[in-house]
Specification:
By secondary structure, the chain is α+β, with helices and mostly antiparallel strands. Helices cover about 15% and strands about 15% of the residues. The chain has two domains: about 80 residues, Alpha-Beta Plaits (2-Layer Sandwich), CATH 3.30.70; about 60 residues, Alpha-Beta Plaits, CATH 3.30.70.20.
Amino acid sequence: MAEAALSRRSFLTAGRGSVREPSDLAITIRPPWATQESLQACTSCGACADSCPTGIISMVEDLPSIDFKFSECTFCGECAAACPEPVFEEGIAAFSHSADISESCLVHSGVSCMSCRDACAEDAIRFRPRIGGPFVPEVLEDACTGCGACVAPCPANAIVMRIEAPEPVNA
């Protein structure tokens, strides 16, 4: 009898799969260089989703949405190049979100894990030493590009994207 292979992620999450916290479900991540305002020009053609080489863009409620569950954004620009409408804006930050490590991180259960740090090409996740336990991860917001490379490798599904509040405009 052949046994199904058990992935490291499945083992460490104790069969929880890709269950996310309820607060996660309300956050919709839009493609890079797209804003809420520019998305009003979206015709729901799906060209951005079809052209994404990492497959993280899908159409949700007729608008492009990103899911970092299986891969990351490489900022290749294929989505913007494929879009026939003025949805993708030049000269703005690619994303308005950054990674945030929730309390479900394995480190809070006394387990040492640095998979998020190892996946981060920008070195935006550092680990702060502490006495009597594993090092604690911290996201350096200024260095985080919001690419989502840290999300899929996290065995505890502890990394979420936090939308940054827009800066107030002084009149």
